Amino acid sequence: MNGEKIEDMLAQLIGMVGGIQAEQHSMKKDQQDLRTSLREMKRDQQEMKQDLQEMKRDQQEMKQDLQEMKRDQQEMKQIQQEMQIKLPEIETKGEERHKEIVDRFKAIENDQDFIWEKTARNEREIGNIKRQLS
Fold first, then answer.
1. Does residue 59 have a pLDDT over 70?
2. How high is the pLDDT of residue 119?
3. Per-residue pLDDT tens over the stretch 3-26
4. What DSSP letter does each residue of 86-110 carry, written as one string?
5. Residue 3's CB: how many other CB atoms inside 10 A?
6. What's the pTM?
7. Rounded to an integer, what is the distance from CA 95 to the centroid of its chain?
8. How far apart are the C-alpha atoms of 132 and 126, rounded to whole Å?
9. Buried b (16+ CB within 10 A) or exposed e, 101-134
């Protein structure tokens, strides 16, 4: 009986050890799977970090472009303001030049009228002189 008990206990121990080994093997496989998953997650995380860095670079470039556009816009506004300040002066000069040209044309017209009158008078006098000589 003692021998049988020992055999039963030994059989029970062997069954338990076999079960433990199977469980240990299963745990090792699970652990390996977890390690693989962890490596994949780390790789994904690295890719995400790279993507994030690229997005940050792109965002910086966009900020720089925006700043350049703002500077350009400020320059254009300044030029526009300068033009608005100079516009009345240009208009005044244009009006003065126009008046000067009109005045010169009037003077030329008066001179022309005077010359026509003088020419007509001279023609009459020439005509009178021709009649007197004839």
1. yes
2. 94
3. 788 888 888 888 888 889 999 999
4. HHHHHHHHHHHHHHHHHHHHHHHHH
5. 7
6. 0.49
7. 41
8. 10
9. eeeeeeeeeeeeeeeeeeeeeeeeeeeeeeeeee
- C-alpha Rg value of the chain to the nearest Å: 56
- Kindly report the number of other CB atoms within 10 A of residue 64's CB atom: 10
67-115 residue pLDDT tens: 999 999 999 999 999 999 999 999 999 999 999 999 999 999 999 999 9
Which sign does the torsion angle of CA 28, 30, 33, 38 carry? negative
Tokens standing for residue 24: 């240990």
Which residue has 């003692």 as its token pair?
A: 2
Tokens of 14: 């062997």
Is 1 a residue whose pLDDT tops 70?
no
Give me the amino acid identity at 51.
Answer: D
CA dihedral sign, ordered 34, 37, 42, 43: positive
In angstroms, the CA 82 to CA 86 distance is 6
